[in-house]
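Q: I'm a student working through a structural biology exercise. My instructor gave each of us a protein and asked us to get a predicted structure, then write a short paragraph describing it. Mine is SUF system NifU family Fe-S cluster assembly protein. I'm not confident about reading structure output yet, so if you can add a plain explanation after the tokens, that would really help. Here is the sequence I was given:
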Amino acid sequence: MDLYQQLILDHSKRPQHAGLREPFEGEAHHVNTTCGDEVTVRVHVDGDEVKDVSYDAQGCSISVASASILAEEVIGFSVEESLSTYEAMRAMLTSKGQDPGDEEVIGDGVALAGVAKYPARVKCALLPWAAYTDALVRAGVDISTVGGQR
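A: Happy to help. First, here is the predicted structure for SUF system NifU family Fe-S cluster assembly protein. I'll explain a few features afterward.
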């Protein structure tokens, strides 16, 4: 088994930051109607810093692993940096395998690069990230300006 497959399994079997926590300013629940995966994401932001991301993810190993990776890659960073990470993940996952991802930007998210070759699975991997951006909006964060660098 290659390293990337192992990372996905590790994140799905031992998800980081799982469980819904307080305090939070925004919460979003998203469902992938194609396969039934569900995720609820809560965000706690203080000023421009993402202080916490907690979630409840039910579904395939890809969606659970993606939620775990999301939390690992955005907690402690600015909202702008987290949105840049989201954009890099989205670009990689929608590239149909042409973008291998940048480990400096998305960390363990590069393990999901192979998902890009399977359009039905891309939705699984993007589900937590879509819920995250929705939760930010519900928290009153302006997400229209994406582009910060880590």
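A: Here are two points you could use in your paragraph. Residues 97 and 116 are 5 Å apart (CA to CA). The domain at 3-138 is CATH 3.90.1010.10 (Sufe protein. Chain: A). It's a good idea to check both against the output above yourself.
Q: Great, thank you!
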